[in-house]
């Protein structure tokens, strides 16, 4: 960490600051720049709050040199982490397809889609039981009943399941869920992150709509610091000024994240745009960018599932995407397994 | 709601859509535009998910005409809501000052600051017991112990207290808290919103970093739809591309929100910039924009409270702000009470 | 266009508005919504300024139904526009590679790189002669001298050239340039757009850093409305809150733009991130998203071209990208020609 | 400037970099951090392009310590610059009001408004002759004819005039204009900045929609480096994700800019929101934030000036704003003169 001191600082304030920094177990290497005194902090600065330093009267600016995350940092763990979900691997040269409906609606629906996406090549089934909705008046999912139906589909098809946990109080219901999803709106729900950090289960951590890559890795760090290192990151679009898509899929994040962390990262091309016909091109783009997998919404019966299946692909369209993805994988050195 | 149908739609798909819309109790007024068929939806469209309509194959675009919020909507409730906190009023021509430290640290500290801000003119005491922090390694607050100290300060000074609730599981500890704050990162933690919606207590709802004004009002609607209409909105900065401030305080939101809703709205000028010397100008700017109050961080002993008091004002600086605010209030038709 | 009138409008103001709208040659279809009067405008509304309507006292909101662009609109021109550059086609099932250095530095340098990128598979040479730079103290390019060197490289290698025009006053120097680039910062320099609209020459129109897709198409419309329909769009990243990359490449824009317009669109994967090692993954991602081509920075001698070649690939790395792109093209139904 | 070198750098690359840095006349102070080698650059680094350093293979990250602007930097020029416009001062403890219509339409209109705003307290007249418009089909202003009308209004009322220059080729027409405005879309039109830098005339430099404060000061630096130090900055809103206002007025920028530069800064509250009824609250907010003035759109005859006067205030509303501003000025230590 580099602290740039204002030109007209008072010695007393500087002494107070340096004393406090040293009390945090960090050494100081001071040097005189052209106009300003510059303090270089040497040692473990991960516990020093950069915002608080910045807010001090005598500080002109402060820059972090070392990343504030450690367990998620590739510098301290150079090889890829492989997250294993019943034999299906995330990370390394593996590529995974998770597919299923936005919401679980009925036994017939979820088992039907599960069979269809399995036939098309998906290894893991997704489906929403608890649904975060902007409006209190919108359908919030079948909740516990939806979870039961998902577990039936797992039993019927042998597919591991992935579904979203919205609050700690429901955690006991998720014992047989294979991947617990933390949604974008909960990416900085720190109590929830700590709760899933105490489990021994893969966590799919979606990026928050307005969160930087560094904040995302800090949220992964929250989970890992409680003991659970099975974190799979999921890019799903960020909020920008562009109104033509609901969110802007940030695919440059994929190769960058792979440099910063050893954790696997996948892409959700369905939610970013909210437009079904963009799923195929954005799926291929994600593979090109180096993603470790895709999570795609698929539904079976559009006319009857108007409001929950609408933004998803039909199984035959999904199959088309899978075929093209499979042609691309050798190009990026990946295999489905 | 206006739905613009694609030029090359299939009749069967259109029939399916119109049938579904009618099943939601909404009438359709279809008209032929220059190039497209346009459906005007007449009736209560608040339960219709605009994103799902947009994602349909035959839909080119969809625009909302009526707001999706009802209880928070000024159209249905023209007069200002007044939220009363032990006689201190939010809304109407009232103006409130909430002040106190970022974190509660000790009995001496919180009581000292409480007395100082009361003397300077604040009516309500703020202080963090549970602290949301980006890093799992940063200090997370004194938690339950911090709450006890706040309650002592309330007893000692008679000031109502305002503090943040981070998770539903702590809700029982907050029985004697006068205003429960929902932080920016929890603005769309829907389970938490429903939980505080069941209380009969003022809720300070901070705007999420990347949330539109409409989403903010939808979160207020979540609380109100559970029965609690005592919602105070708090603007605290949004995330933009500008790196010079931590967040960009969106003061245009103040007069706009006042048109859209009858709920009171205050401003937190301390957190947006993270820079103490911006608190005074941004406080005066907030009053000019028509805010119903301010929530300001104040600390007492900078050298000893380096890391939690740093971005706040000292009591004498806060007093200076209060004096200037008091001069401005008649200009915007407001009084402190 | 749909205009939502406020509930408490004055009849006189409404009459004034409707009279004015009719004077613009547009018909009005008024209907009564649940709470508001709604005016539907039927006819050519492309000349009506939506911002001005929105600002009227009696208007609550206004929504555009028809796009404000006509010449660039796929609705009025369903088949792809093919822009031909000396036999190399942009649009349709063609895919083009433009490559070359950030800045032209010397005859040896530009001819060396031209030969290298041609050998690696590029069809068109790029190179900066006039360089837009944030700082007045930074190197601004060799200007007219740089253009001459580019033309020499064209003569030597037979490659068409693409280079940026920064101001109308230099336009005569660009007579033998094959593609004139309008940079992101000039996307709304309307006088410059009109000037190149009067030429009979392909224009590469980069997207502005903070411009919506619709504004981008309106800028294409400026060029086309002066008579020049040879517009090639170029996505190069938009400005967001994420600090890890210089800009965020918006690849979802590719399939969307292809629906909205018949113009070809290519991607510049070098400038968005400013990080050379992201060029390969983002090039493959662009192909997956359906881009009609790539414009890539390539330099030849990194140690001696420290400051202008640094963010580019070396020729052998570029060749590697070309090989992978060529494997992908059949998947997206494209050929290089 | 601080350069953080990657852990696995090659010695040859580092030598090449350090040699090049030294050739730029800058000294290097190298130190070993916990994990990385860190180079501190001492001397004038304003000519070193930070993006290019960042893009080098061996560089992990780079941070600027000294600002890249010199002439605009308060560190090198601590006292406020006062820009004098025929005796009306911008900067220091002065406060200025510029007012007038969006577009000049007729002699009667502009002289009428000029007299009205002068009576209400404005010292300087604004009016658009050349209008930048997103659509090529929208009214682009009366151009040269509009300028003549403005000059007539100046003659008639004695008010200095402020109007926008859109391209260098029109510069000769602007000889009798008192303040030349550079619009937001031209903030990085570097050739235009250099052209007005050669004049001896106040320049009103609007902030670009997506430009950081630092880029804005770099554009001021462009003008100043050509010899013209009479630059007045103007905040007019930035582009964010919020759709309720056209742009988000960034008032925190006011006190920040005043710390970073000695140049005066004013606010345009009319354009940011595009909503006339927000002009009064945002004007008062601007004064509170410490602005050196306001530029406000005022029109005289709404029913007949529907499309250009719509987003502006009527003279009597403007007068109301002036009265409230005058009450506030002593609070922020300012006077109108």
Architecture overview:
The structure is a homotetramer of 337-residue chains. The first copy, chain A, has 337 residues and is α/β, with parallel strands linked by helices. Chain A has two domains: 2-63, 2-Layer Sandwich (Alpha-Beta Plaits), CATH 3.30.70; 74-336, TIM Barrel. Helix content of chain A is 32%, strand content 19%. The first copy, chain A, has helices spanning 11-23, 50-54, 107-120, 144-157, 190-197, 213-225, 253-260, 269-273, 279-289, 306-309, 315-328; strands at residues 2-5, 27-32, 37-42, 59-63, 83-85, 88-90, 94-100, 124-126, 161-164, 179-182, 203-206, 231-235, 265-267, 293-297, 335-336. In chain A, the strands form three sheets. In chain A, strands 7, 8, 9, 10, 11, 12, 13, 14 and 15 form a nine-stranded parallel β-sheet that branches. The first copy, chain A, has a four-stranded antiparallel β-sheet with strand order 2-3-1-4. Chains in contact: A-B, A-C, A-D, B-C, B-D, C-D.
Largest interface (CB within 8 Å) is between: C-D, 55 and 55 residues
Shape of chain A: elongated
According to CATH, the homologous superfamily of the largest domain in chain A is Aldolase class I
Q: At CATH's second level, what is the architecture of the largest domain in chain A?
A: Alpha-Beta Barrel
* Structural class determined from secondary elements of chain A: alpha/beta
Q: In this structure, how is the largest beta sheet of chain A organized?
A: 9 strands, parallel
In percent, how much strand structure appears in the residues of chain A?
A: 15-25%
Round the Cα radius of gyration of chain A to an integer and report it. Answer: 23 Å
pLDDT < 50 runs, ≥5 residues of chain A: none
Give the CATH topology of the largest domain in chain A.
TIM Barrel
- The overall pLDDT average of chain A reads 91
- What is the share of helical residues of chain A? 25-40%
SSE pattern of chain A, N- to C-terminal = EHEEHEEEEHEHEEHEHEHEHHEHHE
Number of domains of chain A: 2
């Amino acid at each position: 960490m580099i602290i740039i001191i204002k030109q007209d600082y008072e010695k007393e304030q500087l002494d107070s600051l340096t004393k406090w920094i040293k009390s945090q177990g960090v050494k100081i290497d001071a040097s005189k720049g052209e106009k300003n005194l510059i303090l270089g902090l040497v040692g473990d600065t991960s516990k020093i709050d950069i915002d608080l330093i910045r807010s001090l009267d005598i500080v002109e600016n402060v820059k972090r040199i070392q990343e504030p995350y450690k367990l998620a940092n590739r510098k301290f763990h150079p090889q890829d982490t492989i997250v294993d979900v019943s034999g299906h691997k995330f990370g390394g040269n593996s590529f995974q397809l998770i597919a299923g409906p936005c919401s679980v609606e009925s036994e017939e629906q979820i088992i039907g889609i599960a069979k269809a996406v399995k036939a098309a090549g998906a290894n893991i089934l997704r489906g929403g039981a608890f649904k975060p909705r902007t409006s209190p008046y919108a359908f919030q999912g079948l909740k516990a009943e939806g979870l039961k139906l998902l577990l039936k589909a797992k039993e019927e098809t042998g597919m591991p399941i992935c579904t979203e946990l919205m609050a700690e109080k429901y955690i006991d219901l998720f014992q047989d869920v294979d991947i617990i999803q933390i949604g974008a709106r909960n990416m900085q729900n720190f109590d929830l992150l700590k709760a899933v950090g105490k489990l021994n289960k893969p966590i799919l951590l979606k990026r928050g709509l307005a969160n930087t890559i560094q904040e995302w890795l800090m949220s992964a760090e929250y989970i890992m610091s409680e003991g659970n290192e099975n974190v799979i990151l999921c890019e799903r679009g960020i909020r920008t000024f562009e109104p033509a898509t609901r969110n802007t899929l940030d695919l440059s994040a994929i190769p960058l994240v792979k440099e910063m962390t050893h954790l696997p990262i996948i892409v959700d091309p369905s939610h970013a745009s909210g437009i079904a016909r963009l799923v195929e091109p954005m799926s291929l783009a994600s593979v090109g960018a180096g993603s470790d997998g895709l999570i795609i919404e698929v539904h079976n019966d559009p006319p009857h599932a108007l409001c929950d299946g609408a933004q998803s692909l039909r199984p035959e369209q999904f199959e088309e995407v899978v075929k093209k993805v499979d042609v691309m994988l050798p190009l990026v050195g990946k295999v489905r397994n």
